[in-house]
Amino acid sequence: MNTSYNIPQPRTEDKHEMMQGFMQNRAPETPRNEIKMNMNTPGIASVQFGPKSQRCICHKCHADISTTIKWKTSKTTHSAARCLCMTCCFLCACLPYFMNRFKRRLHYCPNCDSYLGYYE
What residue stretches are annotated with the LITAF domain (predicted)? Predict the structure, then answer.
């Protein structure tokens, strides 16, 4: 059984009133050219860090700085040592812990010593 329902269409004036009500209750639109910033560092764009010290603006003291680097052991360090152990190079297994190549590079601000990011 095919039954069609006759639904009356709203008048043009009603459509206009409904649209006005919808526009008033709606959140304001954001401009399309707006740049999205990282919310952890308000007002400063995020930076990709590399293996060497680099210039950037500190998110804490807002100074134009060249980062200082500190090295920390990471999963890469432990994996390299594990691989050396598995290949029967037990005496060389400690070498990755002394080589900065296998460590994570942590970038810090030289002024306020705040952590900025890392490179692995």
Answer: 38-120
